[in-house]
Amino acid sequence: MPLPPFPLINFIFLLLSLTLTTATCPNKCGSLQFSYPFGVGSHCSMASSFNIICKKSTHSPKPYFNITDKLLEIIAIYPSQIRVKYPYLLAATCYNNTAVYPHNVTLDVYSSVDLSDTQYAISDQNWLTAVGCDDIVAAFGHNNKSFAGGCVSYCFNNEPGGYGVCPNDENGYSAGNGCCRTSIPKGTTSLAAQLSDLGGKWLRDKYFPCSYAFVEEKRTSKQSAFRYPFSDLNKSKNISKEDEWVLTTPQPVLQLDWRVGTQNCSEAQRNSSTYACKANAECINLESNSDWTQGYLCRCKKGYHGNPYLKACQDINECDNIELNPCDSNAICTNTIGAAYCSCPKGYAGDGWKIDGKGCIPSNMIHVFIGVGSGIGFLLLLSMCILVHILLQKRRNEKRKEKFFKRNGGLLLQQQTNEGTIQKTKLFSSEELEKATDNFNESRILGRGGQGTVYKGMLSDGKIVAIKKSKLLNKDQLEQFINEVVILSHVNHKNVVKLWGCCLETDVPLLVYELVPNGTLFDLIQDPNTEFQVSWNMRLKIATDIAGALAYLHSALSIPIYHRDVKSSNILLGEKYTVKLSDFGISRSFGTDQTHLTTLVKGTFGYFDPEYFQSSQFTEKSDVYSFGVVLVELLTGQRPISLDIREEERSLVIRFLESMEENYLYKILDDQVLKHGNEEEVIAVAWLAQRCLNLKGKMRPTMKEVAIELESLYMFVEDGEVCEAKSMIISDNEYAWAASGISVESTSSILTFSSESMHATSS
């Protein structure tokens, strides 16, 4: 039998060769999976652009492909894109770093990416990045037409060991430090960059000599920012045209769009021998908004699967695939070419479709389902209405709380406090304080005053507190309330009541204090029904502690605080009758640059500083005067103002000063003081009170001096010793009592107790 012609033999051998090689073509290199048109070797790929080189390495093989005479490692292959490592600089420029402008170029290296003769284009998911100080990068490229762009890389500092940081938003246009980026149009087939110095134009030396430009894929805002050490900008000796990556950061990754052929779909389909899409596949033109319009991609039609470039796409049997089956569980699924058909069996009603269909429902259950569906629909509607009502109510409550917060001085509090104060003062929620006081039950009331009602409460952590519910505040009272919060947030003293926090989201503002359970000093010394006898030592201890607290406010803080309403009813008694100074509603901070403070006269009648009442200028000596009244209360046990006696004798201060001047102090002293007080100690305290009550503020001692004298006296009392009165009294020459018109000839003669007087009073 004669042999067939030679061309026929060649065709048969070629066909066998293709069959054998296709069967033996690998679809994996290392961890990278791929499929035709990509392949290892020219016999397994559609064209040289898709030829993968699988190189052996120490751990596992790595995939590469050769493009533009560069061997690039492949990271991933997608239906229309490929990610590769591209560790090459597009430009590198180095300058000398002298004060001569402009800077002289010592190294200028340029490269480019040219994909004109390949099946690839630079994706618009990349950007051109420039790193350096005071340089402008100009980008030039082509995507069926020429384009240009650029950006300026500017350094804000050159700290040793510092880092440059690139903008990390998806567009890359925000400011960076020693870095800038510019976008790359879709379909770019060639790209080059050039760097130019701007330092000379800004008349400053370059921080670092070198600048680099390269291309990399975009980073999302969720990814870490690109950063590099500034020391990388000193690597001029390591740069040449063939050198790879010079930065110490990981090598950049480049995204490339790939295509099949050089024609669009309509042109390619005219030639069946070169048309790449197999049967049951559809041709996809490149995006019309791109200038890179030549070439196309293939994908299997809906209902088919497989490799559209290798062989015909196969029909998917949706009925055998649980995830792809479009039919209801009661329906009959019939597979068709490229799709499936659903129908209901006998005894069922519906169209059989699971999604966007009616499914298959038993015929006798239709009415039941209608009823159940209606009931469920009604319940859902009712639930939605309730939910909307709850959300609206919650929104109204939030707006109401926000309104109260502003009205109760929340903005004023934020304005008057520094950053640390808000952290020290807790803002309680209204729900927490309502729970703590059993909705402000009247059985929890500890007391009522001019500014509000105080309740006893227990917080969620078990802490017992006093909650002050203020009265509805006008603008002036609001300032007092916020002032009290600000003042107490700065104060940390054992004899000053501690403020735990406040609540501003209720109708009236609330203050949360530590609980001081034993009433006030006024109640202790004025209540005739009390069975507790206030000893002289206890009175001296109370006076010493309150003087110490006021001295702390006046002298120990960076900005002095004047209480402005010192009185016995504002001195609370804790366990073991320790004292706590409270009610700072009208207190004021006094800056060191202020010479005096002019304000409306505020305070309590009977404790007023006469000088303050006349001038409206409050000084630290005004608190000293009020403390002097408290001292007199401790000495006498009498009220500052007595309304049941003659008008000219109603003032306790006047009666006390007259008794001092006319030498009958024993007549005004409290019985406990007369019985148990040491004569020298009582004289010393009385003399100190008289100095505090001087009509001239500058003649009064400071609170620090008062505190030191009382502490010294109390130390002698605690040790069982007695300090002579003279040692506690400033000499007569230091004070002239001009206001009283009486010259004091002998302190000891004026402030003495006769034995007859003591006896007569005690009897």
TrEMBL record:
Kindly report the protein's main subcellular placement as a broad class. membrane
Subcellular location(s): the record lists: Membrane
* Catalytic activity as recorded in UniProt: L-seryl-[protein] + ATP = O-phospho-L-seryl-[protein] + ADP + H(+); L-threonyl-[protein] + ATP = O-phospho-L-threonyl-[protein] + ADP + H(+)
- Output the Gene Ontology cellular-component terms: membrane
A GO molecular function assigned to this protein is: protein serine/threonine kinase activity
* Any Pfam family hit: EGF_3
User: Which N-terminal residues, if any, form the signal peptide?
Assistant: 1-23
Give start and end of each Protein kinase domain: 440-717
Superkingdom to which the source organism belongs: Eukaryota
Q: Where is the EGF-like domain?
A: 315-351
Its transmembrane ranges are 368-392
**Keyword flag Nucleotide-binding:** yes
Q: How does it sit in the membrane?
A: Single-pass type I membrane protein
What keywords appear on the UniProt entry?
ATP-binding, Disulfide bond, EGF-like domain, Glycoprotein, Kinase, Membrane, Nucleotide-binding, Phosphoprotein, Repeat, Serine/threonine-protein kinase, Signal, Transferase, Transmembrane, Transmembrane helix
Describe the function of this protein: Serine/threonine-protein kinase that may function as a signaling receptor of extracellular matrix component. Binding to pectin may have significance in the control of cell expansion, morphogenesis and development.
What is the protein named?
Wall-associated receptor kinase-like 9
Organism of derivation: Salvia divinorum (Maria pastora)
